[in-house]
Amino acid sequence: MITKDKKILIVGLGLMGGSYACALTDAGYEVGAVTRSQSSIDFALKKGIIRHGTSCVSKEYVEQFDILVFSLYPHTFIKWLEQYQGFIKGGAMLTDVTGVKCSVVDKVQDMLRPDLEFIGAHPMCGKETSGVEFASADIFNGANYIVTPTSKNTEKAIEDCEEIGRILGCRNISRLSTAEHDEMIGFLSQLTHCIAVSLMNCKDSKNLVRFTGDSFRDLTRIAHINETMWSELFIMNKTELLRQMDLFAGQFEKMRNAIENEDVDTLKQMMITSTQRRDFFNK
Q1: What's the rounded Cα separation, in Å, for the pair 233 and 216?
Q2: Which of 16, 233, 266, 282 has the fewest beta carbons closer than 10 A?
Q3: Interacting residues of 50 by C-beta distance below 8 A, sequence separation 6+
Q4: Is the separation of the CB atoms in 234 and 226 below 8 Å?
């Protein structure tokens, strides 16, 4: 159990880090933050999102925390630990929000001091906006939350990480291996972003906006995207993402051929399967 005397540090106070801070502060925990932008710290302090924070990493500040949540780009996360893990108090638990796991978890666990424990986590939620100004605890309400333990994790740390998901307000807490996570995320998140981006690249939309209905808006909502973060995630999960893209391309080609050949039976069956599978998401 994560008692209220545990101090929690958010490293990286953007949208997700800020939303973690909102939810954990609302739950009664003492939350601090380290981030590069002093203006982000000032905003979070003014809004009561954090109790204290700094844009300058120091041992005196970092060593007071029991739990550290990293909301950084993967390469930045690893560099931060290389430079500052000596500042973290012994026995602390580290977790993250990173959207890929195979290329992150093993590397972090291998480089970490033996008196620290890192366990990967991924809340399946977000917004098309970025920055702590858009942070909200509401994004976790009813969201799915994935924990990716390895053989190097203790059961206590796994349970504490799962408890963080419940404190945030997530609905479904799951345990997956890092490989299972990256397969699921490759299909459910990264492929869908690839489709939305590709669709928006097909035609100039400045005139189309006058004619479109809700279907195009709904399908392309996630095409408003952070190009730096998502490019890194796509490349880090390249093998799995390419497999999912090939899977989609095969089904798209099947539909194209059915239309070209006026194969109504195949079209109808694909639509029936689509409707049946989509119904699971409405329950």
Answers
A1: 25
A2: 282
A3: 10, 13, 21, 25, 31, 32, 33, 41, 44
A4: no
Separation CA 8–CA 25 (nearest Å): 9
Q: What is the pTM of this model?
A: 0.91
Residue pointed to by tokens 């931060």: 80
Q: Supply the DSSP string of the chain, one letter for each residue.
A: ---TT-EEEEES-SHHHHHHHHHHHHTT-EEEEE-S-HHHHHHHHHHTS-SEEESS--HHHHTT-SEEEE-S-HHHHHHHHHHHGGGSPTT-EEEE--S--HHHHHHHHHHS-TT-EEEEEEEE---S--SGGG--GGGGTT-EEEEE--TTS-HHHHHHHHHHHHHHT-SEEEE--HHHHHHHHIIIIIIHHHHHHHHHHHS-HHHHTTT--HHHHHHTGGGS--HHHHHHHHHHTHHHHHHHHHHHHHHHHHHHHHHHTT-HHHHHHHHHHHHHHHHGGG-
Q: How far is CA 45 from the centre of its chain?
A: 24
